[in-house]
Design a protein that fits this description.
The chain has 147 residues and is α+β, with helices and mostly antiparallel strands. It has two domains: 29 residues; 106 residues, Immunoglobulins (Immunoglobulin-like, Sandwich). It has three helices and seven strands; from the N terminus they run H-H-H-E-E-E-E-E-E-E. The strands form two sheets. A four-stranded antiparallel beta sheet has the order 4-3-6-7. Strands 1-2-5 form a three-stranded antiparallel beta sheet, with no helix packed on it.
């Protein structure tokens, strides 16, 4: 049987439509999770200049934060000017690929160090966010880390 050019065009259109329908059906699969970075991203956008100011406060510190992976988890060394008495805030660990793994820890320093236990961490990419204040000055430190 010989296929003429008209039949070939109809077959090509049918294959193209099938190709497009496959991706439409696949994208609407309820098993696909599309988590937002933030549920209230419009409100967060309005506060963006505050974040920039807090990050600039961190850049103006004499010492830098040191974040290291060790056998117990992730160790964060704060600059020596911060002690448990003059600091309050939280450390937020966000997993970009799975919102269910995100957690938050209050800052409790031990010799200017904070340990995030590996029992809370899964191997992969994490976004570290340290939001704190000391003596009335707000600070924000962000870093993407691989655990």
């Amino acid at each position: 049987m010989k296929i003429n050019w008209g039949t070939s065009i109809v077959i090509a259109f049918a294959l193209f439509i099938s190709f497009i329908l496959f991706f439409v059906i696949k994208s609407h699969n309820p098993n696909n999770k599309h988590d937002l970075v933030s549920e209230e991203y419009y409100k967060d956008e309005l506060k963006f200049q505050d974040e920039i100011d807090k990050q600039n406060n961190v850049k103006n510190l004499e010492e830098a934060f040191i974040v290291q992976k060790n056998s117990d988890g992730i160790e964060i060394q704060f600059p020596s000017q911060f002690t448990n008495d003059n600091i309050s805030g939280v450390v937020i660990m966000a997993r970009p690929s799975n919102k269910a793994l995100d957690f938050e820890t209050a800052i409790q320093l031990n010799n200017n160090k904070l340990l995030l236990s590996k029992s809370n961490l899964v191997e992969g990419n994490w976004n570290l966010k340290i939001e704190f204040s000391s003596e009335g000055t707000p600070y924000l430190y962000k870093k993407s880390i691989q655990f």
